[in-house]
Write the structure tokens for this entry.
Amino acid sequence: MKKNINLKVPPQADFIQTWRWTDEGLFLLDQRKLPQQEKYIICNTVDKVRKAIKDMVVRGAPAIGICSAIGFTIGIKNFLEKKKKISIQSINQEVKKISYLLETARPTAVNLKWAVNRMKNVCENFLKEIEKEQITLEILKRLYFFLEEEALKIWEEDIIGNLAMAKFGKDLIPEGGVLTHCNTGALATGGYGTALGVIRESYKHNKKIFVFVDETRPFLQGSRLTAWELSKLKIPYAIITDNTAGYLMKKGQVKAVIVGADRIASNGDTANKIGTYSLAVLAYHHQIPFFVAAPSSTFDLEILSGEEIPIEQRPSKEVLYCVKSKIAPLNAKAYNFAFDITPGELITAIITEKGVIYPPYKENILKTIKGNEN
Ligand code: MRU
């Protein structure tokens, strides 16, 4: 089942190689080690991909969606290579197992389920077509080929979508201070960025912007990752502690807030990194526009509101320690909610690759996300 293509990269790769996909497996840039070290770890089994997603080697809703699609392909490849006797039933069983492992790696971002569903559909359609045929090595190679093609398509579509949303969003961003939270750049996506992509595009079009980067405790996605990307892009920025936003808004230094999303309900309620809700409340109080930028893969139209979104709780040691140093008394208890929900009414607009969505969200999300499908 070895293929000739060695490096699998869609046409629009970015300035950072967040991951490389080769016949050996998925090489992930270990985001836990940035910005001090740029090290890759190799994942050549589904379990390893799941663990990398769970442990935040790779993070960001679109990025973990794409990696789960690649992980799915790797899982099926390993299964087909190992098993001597393969039946449709055994493939179905494996698909179930792999899907479960990947879908449940993290609970909040819907992109995991979305990407796994796309991969499952490829398998289902393929197996339906070959129902009456004898299973041969040639047939199995075809299945692997279709899966690889779909995973690359998911990756490529994400980059193309990011570029489209950046173009829609750039006109909305005013000049001056723009505040962002967490990391929504090339590291968190297929290779450009959602909220950070909009900032990049605005800057590229000579908008005089200055980015306030929330450090984003406890994982420090802002100070470690967003700042790292902005430095590479030479976009002016300063890191601020998460509790500085209100002060800067009061002084009139923040002209807009823009963040990404992990799941958006059909009424516009948005799950994103913990602290996003507080920013939205502050922005509302100071009458500052609050934008969310996200691809359509982040919308969960099966749920009516944010109340239905599961919020991941991560180990308390991430709060109790900072860069390996304990920063709390012995036996201290800590809560580590990884996300919160911002109600749709606090969001000025949602920028997607299909266009900018304004309230009322119940109607307009459906129109934009579903309306243009097919
Ligand atoms: O826990 P993380 O780092 O995966 O959380 C990421 C975020 O909250 C991002 O804002 C979101 O996934 C959008 S990334 C384009």
